[in-house]
Write a structure and sequence with these properties.
This protein is α/β, with parallel strands linked by helices and 567 residues long. Helix content is 38%, strand content 21%. D-xylulose binds at residues 12-13, 93-95, 134, 167, 215, 284-286, 340.
Length: 567
């Protein structure tokens, strides 16, 4: 048993990665294939094709198949003993869809182990050769139709966990059907990127995953079933169309640890996998990220990269058009909340560069910025009730839906006015204000997803920004996590989370008193060595300060509205 291995894949936008772990969670072998570099014949840029005029972004499905051939070859070269792999899971970029043709099922079932996958899954299996990508913005008309017909953004969010979004699969299928009616008619089944990948492993079409299905705007999360009305609209408004689309979509597997069946014989014969090795649902990349650590309810992950993503695990199904709720990938009754911002590090770097012009940094490029941020008082005030509120969107923002710009306000008692030159020391005062602004925006939206107080237990920071102590400190002050802020070093979170899920799916025990499986988080917490995986970077809750930031949230919300409405 100690030799057993568990394999996690991540089929993301620019590459496909694999990580094999043993039952002690130790990584044994890792490999990756970068599409632009390792499969250059498909001519993608950053893994996709873009038609700027039509705001379309899409990727060739056969490229992923070729890349998977290359990845299996790399794992073999690296010495992976495929026979020891007990279970495989994975993660896929969210929202993308794959349109299978009528020939798909028979061809998947009869793969010839003398040939590569790409030699056989060469395009005939698909009614459309491209998969719409999450960066696609071409479905404005379809999103409007869904929201206008079915009760507005709040209502769609309440039903499906998110308002209608361009990248979500429902609006994308709707556009595909109207743009390519003949291809839509020839589509036998529709998979997400995640269930497509599970299908390639199984040699048959896999059900859609319980969490990834929530990125489609088609799934009624509270009732765990397809939403008939949205499916009907997407399918053209007729009952017959609805029935046909439901058939194309197929089943959703509600158990994230389910044994979906053994790996296809193709891999047994060609690579020496064991015929006992089984496949467990492949989920979305964001849901897989929360499986890379034992994330407890009330814990928050903040990923501080080019963009900012916040993920929470929560028992509360509370929806809003400004964020996303997904069913948890492993645990019934839990949800994953997600915020996706466009303006993250770029906005901070812009302020940093402006500060560096007037106060050249003494050590690293952030030293002047950090000094300005940490020596300024919270909300820019030493005493009294006024506060400084800034909004910094060098790029158009998703949350809130706002054009680019910078806004600086003074909040005095209940009124907000634009700051005058005397009231705001530009750019020095911006250092603290931008960190506060980004964190207040997240607290405003993540709070309702957490608890009645909106206070998290822990905040885990990942990504480039997590190495900056000033960012971690302000995050701790504003979120006030009771146990503090922790830095997590993970470059392979999605593939690792998938490998952990494969291990849990194999070894989870049934509790004899409840008849329920041991939860993923309990299982992982028992095996995860916190001392080597995370470092505490801030104390978190400071009495009085967290409350003070809470009081400014309504004014912050008003400031955002002014920014959104300004021409
Ligand atoms: C989430 C989203 C992206 C993709 C990236 O809604 O669109 O994070 O999942 O692969």
């Amino acid at each position: 048993m100690n030799d057993d291995l568990f394999l996690g894949f991540d089929l993301s936008t620019q590459q496909i990665k694999a990580i094999a772990i043993n039952s002690k969670l130790q990584p044994i072998i890792e490999a990756n294939v970068e599409f632009d570099v390792d499969t250059p014949e498909y001519l993608t840029k950053k893994g996709v094709f873009t038609n700027a005029e039509r705001q379309e972004v899409y990727a060739p499905v056969v490229m992923w198949i070729k890349a998977f051939d290359v990845l299996l070859g790399k794992l073999q070269m690296a010495g992976l003993d495929f026979a020891k792999v007990k279970c495989i899971s994975g993660a896929g970029q969210q929202h993308g869809s794959v349109f299978w043709s009528e020939d798909a099922e028979s061809m998947l079932a009869s793969l010839d182990s003398e040939k590569t996958l790409a030699e056989q899954l060469d395009g005939r299996q698909f009614s459309h050769d491209m998969s719409p990508n999450w960066q696609d913005h071409s479905t404005g008309k379809e999103c409007d139709a869904i929201e206008d017909t079915l009760g507005g953004p709040e209502k769609i969010a309440q039903l499906t966990g998110s308002k209608a979004h361009h990248r979500f699969t429902g609006p994308q299928i709707m556009r595909f059907r109207t743009l390519h009616p003949e291809k839509y008619d020839k589509t036998w089944r529709i998979s997400l990127v995640s269930s497509f990948f599970a299908s390639i492993l199984l040699g048959k079409i896999a059900p859609i995953d319980v969490s990834d299905v929530c990125g489609m705007n088609l799934w009624d999360i509270p009732n765990s079933k397809w939403n008939d009305e949205i499916v009907r609209l997407v399918a053209g408004g007729t009952e017959a169309g609805k029935v046909e689309l439901l058939r194309k979509l197929g089943e959703v597997e509600l158990d994230g640890g389910k044994d979906l069946g053994p790996i296809s014989n193709y891999y047994v014969r060609r690579f020496g996998f064991s015929s006992d090795c089984f496949i467990t649902p492949v989920t979305g990349d964001n849901p897989a990220t929360i499986l890379a650590l034992p994330l407890r309810p009330l814990d928050v992950i903040v990923s501080l990269g080019t963009s900012t993503t916040l993920l929470v695990s929560t028992p509360v199904y509370k929806t809003s058009p400004s964020y996303h709720i997904f069913s948890h990938p492993t645990t019934k009754g839990l949800y994953m909340g997600m915020l996706c911002y466009c303006n993250g590090s770029l906005a901070r770097e812009k302020v940093r560069d402006e500060i560096n012009v007037i106060s050249p940094p003494s050590s690293d490029s952030w030293s002047s910025f950090n000094e300005a941020a940490l020596t300024s008082p919270p909300l820019g005030v030493d005493s009294g009730n006024t506060s400084k509120i800034g909004i910094y969107f060098p790029l158009p923002e998703i949350i809130p839906d706002c054009k680019p710009g910078v806004w600086r306000f003074i909040n005095d008692a209940d009124s907000l006015h634009n700051a005058s030159a005397e009231e705001w020391d530009i750019p020095t005062a911006d250092a603290r204000t931008i960190l506060e602004s980004q964190n207040l925006s997240m607290r405003l939206r993540a709070g309702p997803m957490l608890s009645s107080t909106g206070q998290p237990r822990r905040v885990y920071v990942v990504g480039g920004g997590s190495r900056n102590p000033a960012i971690c400190e302000v995050t701790g002050q504003i979120f006030g996590p009771t146990e503090g802020v922790f830095k997590l070093e993970l470059s392979n979170a999605c593939a690792l989370g998938s490998a952990y899920k494969a291990l849990w799916s194999t070894q989870r025990m049934v509790d004899s008193s409840t008849g329920e499986y041991e939860t993923f988080d309990d299982f992982l917490a028992d095996r995860w060595d916190e001392s080597t995986m995370i470092a505490k970077v801030d104390v978190g809750y400071r009495k009085g300060l967290w409350e003070k930031y809470g009081e400014v949230l309504p004014a912050f919300e008003t400031a955002e509205k002014v920014a959104v409405e300004s021409k």
